[in-house]
Inverse folding.
């Protein structure tokens, strides 16, 4: 069964450093998302991406965050200057479409980010 | 705006007993409703969805959920719980005009032998 692959599985960084989290989506997916989960609880929407541009973003997704899919495969989330409160599990997810209920999300295993 | 409420942080049941995990939602249009399960150190996995049609939907691992429009609820149920069902369960809603899914805070299900 196709999987969403995320790297790294765990990254520890110093406050103020840049972090890039990478995701390889399933090949027939068209819509891509980043969510984050703090302390193993609430799952928060960050951003959605379609047709090589951001389609929606949350209040969390401020100027310190960016996403791109430069080569048509890897989907990356960049945090320019990390803060302590960015420590979380970051999940990449993909979906085939948003019409006809096709928006079933397939999640990766997550990248745990620890900011010291 | 769309939102989901899972009123119980924790549900405990004995193996073999029926289980219910509650979810209520709020959306501006017709809802697309989902249940996902998360096992420790894993990503969320899709269990079932309601889009339209029969209010009772069946999903993976013997789970089912009932859509109740008047009560704006989508409770997850299983007739006979297994210890292996112990996990974190998330309800999610999507407005037909929105691309994102909004998740509830999650309910930890513990099934004891």
């Amino acid at each position: 069964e196709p999987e969403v692959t995320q790297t790294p599985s765990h990254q520890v960084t110093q406050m103020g450093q840049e972090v890039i989290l990478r995701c390889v989506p399933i090949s027939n997916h068209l819509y891509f998302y980043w969510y984050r989960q703090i302390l193993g609880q609430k799952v928060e929407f960050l951003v959605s991406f379609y047709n090589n541009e951001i389609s929606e973003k949350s209040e969390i997704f401020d100027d310190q965050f960016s996403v791109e899919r430069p080569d048509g495969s890897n989907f990356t989330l960049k945090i320019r200057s990390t803060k302590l409160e960015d420590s979380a599990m970051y999940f990449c997810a993909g979906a085939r479409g948003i019409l006809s209920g096709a928006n079933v999300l397939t999640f990766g295993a997550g990248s745990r980010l620890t900011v010291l | 705006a769309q939102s989901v409420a899972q009123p119980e942080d924790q549900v405990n049941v004995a193996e073999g007993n029926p289980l219910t995990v509650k979810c209520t939602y709020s959306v501006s249009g017709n809802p697309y409703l989902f249940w996902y399960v998360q096992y420790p150190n894993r990503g969320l996995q899709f269990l079932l969805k309601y889009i339209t049609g029969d209010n009772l939907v069946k999903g993976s691992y013997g789970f089912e959920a009932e859509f109740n429009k008047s009560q704006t609820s989508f409770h997850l149920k299983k007739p006979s719980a297994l210890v292996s069902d112990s996990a974190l369960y998330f309800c999610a809603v999507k407005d037909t005009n929105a691309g994102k899914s909004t998740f509830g805070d999650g309910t930890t299900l513990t099934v004891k032998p």
